[in-house]
Specification:
The protein is α+β, with helices and mostly antiparallel strands and about 200 residues long. The chain contains five helices and twelve strands. Strands 7-6-10-9-8-12 form a six-stranded mixed beta sheet.
Length: about 200
C-alpha cells in the first residue's frame, strides 16, 4: 500500500500532486471516497489527489499496478522503480492486473473488497513525473496500464495481505483490452461495449 508524499505540481494547473507514492509503514484504511470534487478523492486514508477534476472519486478510488510490470519497466528504462513509482496505491505481487476483467472483484485481507473499473490513461503529470522524452507514447504502446478500482467493502489493508479474486464476469473484457480500445485502437470500442453489455 502506497500513500502520497505531496509535492508541488509544475505539470498541471493544480497546485499539488500526489503522484509521488511511498510505501505505508502500517495498515491503511480503505473506503469509498465519494464524488471527485466533493469527496475525499482517494480511497486510502492519508492519501492525496491533487487534480480532483480528473482523478479520484469512487470509480478511481484505488490504483493498482503489478510489481512484475514495474520490474519489466526497470529493465527497459534501466532505472530503479520502487513500489509506488507509477503513482499506484496498491502494488500487487502475483496478480495479473492487466489481465483482470472489468467488474472483477478482489478480496484483500479480512474485510476489503475492490472492483476493477477501468485502466489508467496516462496524463501530463505522469509524463512530467517520469521525465522521459516520449513517455506517454511509450507507456501507451506497451499497454500495461494498471487498473483503477472502486471500494465495494471497506476496511484496513496491510502489505502482507493476500489478494483473492472472488468474482470474474464472463464478458472477457480485460483491463489491457479496454486500454487499447480507449487509446490506439478505437475500432475495438463497439465490440468491447457489446461484450460488456452481454456479460455484465
Amino acid at each position: 500500500m502506497n500513500i502520497a508524499h505531496v509535492r508541488p505540481n509544475p505539470h498541471k494547473t493544480s497546485d499539488v500532486t500526489g503522484i509521488d507514492k511511498r510505501p505505508a509503514t502500517g495498515p491503511v484504511d480503505v473506503r469509498a471516497p465519494g464524488m471527485k470534487d466533493g469527496g475525499a478523492g482517494s480511497g486510502l486514508a492519508g492519501d492525496t489527489i491533487g487534480d480532483r477534476e480528473h482523478h479520484g472519486g469512487d470509480d478511481q478510488a484505488v490504483y493498482a499496478y503489478a510489481r512484475e510490470d514495474l520490474d519489466r519497466w526497470e529493465r527497459e528504462l534501466d532505472r530503479t522503480l520502487a513500489s509506488g513509482s507509477f503513482g499506484e496505491n496498491l502494488t500487487t505481487d502475483g496478480v495479473d492486473v492487466n489481465g483482470a476483467l472489468i467488474g472483477e472483484r478482489w478480496r484483500i485481507g479480512d474485510d476489503v473488497e475492490l472492483e476493477v473499473t477501468f485502466p489508467r490513461v496516462p496524463c501530463a503529470t505522469f509524463r512530467g513525473w517520469m521525465g522521459i522524452p516520449g513517455w506517454l507514447k511509450t507507456f501507451t504502446v506497451t499497454a500495461i496500464p494498471g487498473t483503477y478500482l472502486r471500494v465495494t467493502a471497506p476496511g484496513a489493508v496491510s502489505a502482507a495481505d493476500e489478494i483473492i479474486v472472488s468474482h470474474r464476469p464472463d464478458h472477457g473484457v480485460t483491463v489491457a483490452l479496454m486500454f487499447r480500445a480507449l487509446t490506439l485502437e478505437p475500432d475495438l470500442i463497439p465490440s468491447v461495449e457489446a461484450a460488456l453489455d452481454r456479460g455484465a
